[in-house]
Amino acid sequence: QVQLVESGGGLVQAGGSLRLSCAATGRTFWKYDMAWFRQAPEKEREFVATIKWQGDIYYKDSVKGRFTISRDNAKNTVYLQMNSLIPEDTAVYYCASPTREGGSTWLQKPNEYDYWGQGTQVTVSS
């Protein structure tokens, strides 16, 4: 059974930094794309960043240059380093992974992902 467990959220002032972690269990981690999404109150869940199984990376435009996604296959963990945080980054952040292995397509829609963590709250105060 695949499980994703996020950690690292919290309250931070604008301009500050946080690092989110997502630990995966239940299958061979390196074979699968991993992604981060976020959902603010009364808004739809939105794509933030993805790192493919072979290491290629893609970001939402508004986080480019501020957020960095990475993965440690030895630890079965994906990270999201968030710098220069702004109040608009406030949301519950989720990590996600698809059922299928590998692939060359960028997956950016929530319905393209099958496994989700429980979410971790990030609050940025102004």
Keywords:
mainly beta; 126 residues
What does the secondary structure layout of this molecule look like, with pairings?
Layout: E1 3-7, E2 10-13, E3 18-25, E4 34-39, E5 46-51, E6 57-59, E7 67-72, E8 77-82, E9 91-97, E10 115-116, E11 120-125
Parallel strand pairs: 2-11
Antiparallel strand pairs: 1-3, 3-8, 4-5, 4-9, 5-6, 7-8, 9-10, 9-11
Account of the 3D structure:
The protein has about 130 residues and is mainly β. Helices cover about 0% and strands about 45% of the residues. The chain is built from no helices and 11 strands. It has strands spanning about 5, 10-15, 20-25, 35-40, 45-50, 55-60, 65-70, 75-80, 90-95, 115, 120-125. The strands form 2 sheets. Strands 2, 4, 5, 6, 9, 10 and 11 form a 7-stranded mixed beta sheet that branches. Strands 1-3-8-7 form a 4-stranded antiparallel beta sheet, with no helix packed on it. Strand 4 and strand 5 (about 45-50) form a beta hairpin.
Secondary structure: number of strands: 11
Q: How many distinct helices?
A: 0
The 3D shape can be described as globular
Task: Return Rg in Å.
Answer: 14 Å
Class by SSE composition: mainly beta
What's the overall average pLDDT, rounded? 96
Largest sheet: 7 strands, mixed
Task: Give a brief description.
With 126 residues, this protein is mainly beta. The chain is built from no helices and eleven strands. Strand 7 and strand 8 (77-82) form a beta hairpin.
